[in-house]
Write a sequence for this structure.
């Protein structure tokens, strides 16, 4: 079958990317609000870091210029953890479900074992994070995660 036609992937080492004039015009307008949106994302990330339990694995902040497109955490039994949050009305996403060495694009290269990448693919869960998110929403998510970590039933 055809590789992804509507996505960017066309085959190993190939990328298909096009931007028409309408898309460019929209993006030029969105660039005007980018600094404020980035500042808001950084504020929300700081709030998560301040209120998430220490038992939750967050990725180390090594770049003060990080824009926090995602806020991933690492948790054991991720699928059950995600289901428990969803039962509380908290939607999360799994952005990288397959370790890089197991992706189809790398099949021709016969990559070796990458246990850390495989563990990360099994544990990473992205918490809600967007510029329109309220501080109270972050606190609600952090409180639900704290309850889960303490073994409380989420109702």
């Amino acid at each position: 079958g055809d590789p992804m036609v509507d996505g960017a992937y066309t085959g190993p080492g190939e990328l298909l990317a096009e931007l028409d004039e309408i898309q460019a015009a929209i993006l030029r307008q969105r660039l005007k609000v980018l600094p404020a949106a980035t500042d808001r994302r950084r504020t929300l990330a700081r709030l998560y870091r301040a209120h998430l339990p220490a038992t939750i694995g967050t990725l180390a902040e090594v770049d003060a210029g990080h824009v926090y497109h995602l806020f991933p955490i690492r948790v054991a039994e991720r699928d059950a953890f995600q289901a428990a949050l969803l039962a509380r009305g908290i939607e999360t996403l799994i952005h990288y479900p397959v370790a890089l060495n197991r992706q189809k694009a790398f099949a021709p290269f016969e990559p070796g074992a990458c246990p850390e990448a495989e563990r990360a693919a099994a544990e990473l869960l992205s918490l809600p994070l967007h510029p329109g998110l309220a501080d109270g929403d972050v606190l609600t998510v952090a409180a639900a995660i704290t309850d889960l970590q303490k073994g409380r039933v989420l109702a």
